[in-house]
Amino acid sequence: MTQANKGGQRQEIVFTGFGGQGIVLAGRILGKAAVIGDHRQSTLVQAYGPEARGGACSAQVIIADQAIHYPYVRRPDVLVCMSQAGFDKFIGQMKEGGTLLIDKDLVQPKGVSGDFFSIPSSRMAEELGRIMLANIIMLGFFTAVTGAVSVDAARDAVVKSVPKGTEEMNATAFNKGCDYGLAVLKGREKKASGKAGA
User: 37: closest CA among 194, 178, 156, 169?
Assistant: First the structure.
């Protein structure tokens, strides 16, 4: 698994999409997981377009082992895109060699020459019967792929951050995204080691 938080590293992460997708909630849960679950430092800066629902929005999260003196993300190490507009706005800022995660049904990663990770998070949420779970599925996927926070800390933060009565449903959505991410990583490992059936 890619453990992106090795050795006291600082990670700058941007979640982006449109209003109503729960982008800021995903950022808040991620920060909570880092601080409460993993005992690290974290900041969150949120931004909305002029229209809340349907407008562009983003959550900028920094996770570090030392104090964070500047909370704004300049060059994201990880960019998570759940809308085409968000991708178009932030892709040029992503750090060279950074990690890109997209919702494969909502984002066409035009002009991306490097490697990236994709998950049909919105489609998976619809299969669970609640499109509103797409952000939690994406968060599970993000956790598995990047290792920025521990799986237990992230799952715990999800359960403690969602409305009462929806905890189990959200935990299921998180696990679905996480399992998908682990399967993608395993497939890549197989491919890299030249095994058949990847």
Answer: 156
